[in-house]
Design brief:
By secondary structure, the protein is an alpha/beta fold. Helix content is about 55%, strand content about 10%. The protein contains 26 helices and 13 strands. The chain has a five-stranded parallel sheet, covered by helices on one side. Strands 9-10-11-12 form a four-stranded mixed sheet. A hairpin with a 2-residue loop joins β10 and β11. α19 packs across α20. The longest helix is centred in the middle third of the chain and has 21 residues. The radius of gyration is 35 Å and the shape is elongated.
Length: about 550
Amino acid sequence: MYRVLYRKWRPEGFADVIGQPHVTETLKNEIRSGRISHAYLFTGSRGTGKTTCAKILSRAVNCLDPHDGEPCGKCSNCVGIMNGNIMDVVEMDAASNNSVNNIRDVLDEVMFTPSEAKFRVYIIDEVHMLSQGAFNALLKTLEEPPQHIVFILATTEVHKIPATILSRCQRFDFNRIEPKAIADRLEYIAGQENVKLSYDGAMLIAAVADGAMRDALSILDRCIGLSDNIDSDIVREATGLAGRDYLFTLADSVRNGDVPLAINTINKLHKESKSISRLCEELTEHFRTLMLIKTMKKSAGELIIMSDDEMTRAKAQAEMFSLSAIVRCIDVLQASLERMFRGGNNKIEFETCMIKLCSPALSDDISSLKARLEKLEAIVRQGVSVVSDRAVQKSDSIQENNPQSVKTEQTVDNTAEKESLPEIRPKTQGGDIIGRLVAKAKPLDSWEDIMDEMKSQSTTLYHRMRGTRAFYADDYILIDAPDDSAFAFLRSDKNRNLLIRDAIKKVTGHQYKIGPYRKPQGEAPALKSKLDEFIEQISDSDIKVNVKE
């Protein structure tokens, strides 16, 4: 009969236990010195080796010929315990035998000496499931145990065990196994099973197993059922994981506020039978990766499991998010995941979650309000003119009652505009004005967003403007292009200038005057004259943005 891998490859000695040297070395030292405690408590997350070490310890204390603290595995006691023929070693599942009567049955046998072995060993798994009465019954024996008794208690929830029990046990905490250690063990086992396992596939299994060796072997067993040549794609297919490409796409949709892209991606994954709750967990983990990159800088690689190419891509994406935006995404995703486990339609819940992430204005929680406030602050830092509704209404009322004032105001504005035009030429009596603007110009952080807005209006204009940068100073946005072709394209059609102005206004909330960015040094004279012509062709206009009080 076929034996699953986690049973077939269960360690038979302390040396075979992976990732728990602080436990195994201490137990071996106790066996060597003969200082065997009457009660041990093994605690830690699932699949880390608690029950395995309990079985090994039960053989080691009864072994007739131990070697350096290890059971020999050949004597009659070791063979009998492994085969289950020696009745002095008892394994008990407290999850199904948790009443006081079950414990009393065990305690009735405690006073009898071992029939074949040196010690009577009782392994009680999931001991935290015992009732309060069962713990009370066990307490007296733990306090005054016979010399031939060894209790080994194992649990994943040590906080549920009474302090009176804890104080009478020698406690060992099992850590989650490092992904590298799990991957190395998987590669060794795959080789023994005549299966080809790639390093990326082994690391992905280790990441999904989350520090549990048993879970990792179960996943490997599932992958072998699909193919004898296992890579990361086979692992994703076997576990129902979404590829990282989908995670980067979903994160990009959040950054760009692209709801259709997010919904279409979710629908595609759902049709491919991907687990929506698992997808939510993966996206949460992806934003955690971006958070670590933002906060840990160079040391982030020690905490993140991904290939070099994926790490480069993740670092580039992390630069596009603020830390507060990443934290908000994690909070919203975790709240959505909790609601999934409480019931309801997971697909609808996740779609709603992504819409909230793409559109912070739809959510009234504190993190969403902070995100909207940050965006507003960024706009204000770029020189937005803020006018209250009350002031605008008053101005509109004056204009309606006195049309002449409107005409006079427009005349004054036009006059001022005409008078200001000569001052932005590169050289005047007062010196190089554009040069002074360039000297105090700062990079425009929202230029990428403006380019995205441009793309939605005109693909041709977007491709012509790709590779450009933008700077702002006073009421001007200065565009830095690698050559003059972009400006020549703008001069050929006045509507293109209007498209850029419209995109800038939608993103920043303010209509800037547009000009070329002339580098302080190394600029060719021929290029200067062409840019001067471009400046003269651009019309200047100011539009105020109304923001509610």
